Amino acid sequence: RRPRIAAGSPPQTLRIAIPTMQEKERWLQGIAFQPGDLRVVRSAVFYIDKTNQWLGGWVPGANVIMYPETVAALLPIGAKVILEIHYQSVDVDVDDLSSVGLYFAERKPSRPLSGLGIETRVQIPPGNELFRLRKEFTVISDSYAISMHPQTLSAARSLEIAALDSSGEPQVLLALNEIHGEGMPYVFEQ
């Protein structure tokens, strides 16, 4: 279907379920997203309906999402890939003709794709305008970071995500000095 974004409409999200019509389990190696009109397409995220496995995100300038050679996402029989396209306001009516391509692995990978969610709920003390929160967690040393999709409430003003190498030195993966509205995915070039 061809979504029409009307002139002057507020930012919106369109959720599309893409049937894969597969008769056996398969392993997804990557996703290509081609925005129909960059005037209106702000970002896109992908996940599997049956497992809620997050597959990645697209922002302008990003390329095809390809997982490392040893990694793939399980696509169960009858599963759908969910595409959420985030649109911004435009001055003229726009018909969006975005497209999606799925890349499949020939065999089961040595490491299934997994998402890591970090939930930190916090009550900010009344009258405390600046409140710093630090959350630490450990992942196995040979993990890959493909992209990040921070989701914060309106109280958040900035965000920094860093990884510590084996010597304890931080490597900043994502730093946002100002957060405006809905969080977009951040896709790494490497």
How does this model look, in words?
By secondary structure, the protein is an all-beta fold. 0% of the residues lie in helices and 39% in strands. It has strands at residues 4-5, 12-19, 26-34, 41-48, 54-58, 65-66, 71-75, 80-87, 94-95, 99-104, 111-112, 147-148, 159-164, 170-176, 186-187. Strands 3, 6, 7, 10 and 11 form a five-stranded mixed sheet that branches. A four-stranded antiparallel sheet has the order 2-8-4-5, with no helix packed on it. Strand 13 and strand 14 form a beta hairpin. The model has no long low-confidence stretch (mean pLDDT 82).
Alpha-carbon distance between the two ends: 33 Å
Order of helices and strands: EEEEEEEEEEEEEEE
Beta content: 35-45%
The biggest beta sheet is recorded as: 5 strands, mixed
Please outline what is shown here.
With 190 residues, the protein is mainly β. The chain has strands at 4-5, 12-19, 26-34, 41-48, 54-58, 65-66, 71-75, 80-87, 94-95, 99-104, 111-112, 147-148, 159-164, 170-176, 186-187.
Q: How would you summarize the topology of this molecule?
A:
Blueprint: E1 4-5, E2 12-19, E3 26-34, E4 41-48, E5 54-58, E6 65-66, E7 71-75, E8 80-87, E9 94-95, E10 99-104, E11 111-112, E12 147-148, E13 159-164, E14 170-176, E15 186-187
Parallel strand pairs: 7-11
Antiparallel strand pairs: 1-9, 2-8, 3-6, 3-7, 3-10, 4-5, 4-8, 12-15, 13-14
